Amino acid sequence: MVSAHLQTFLNKPVQDFLPPTVIDPEKYVYRLAVHYDDEGVTISDLLEALVRELPTNGHVRLELTSGDSCEGVIVERPNVQLYFDPSDRREGINGEVCLERPEVPDWHRWIWLDEIARVEHLDSTMGSEC
Question: Which terminal residue of the chain, N or C, has fewer Cβ atoms less than 10 Å from its own Cβ?
Answer without folding.
Answer: C
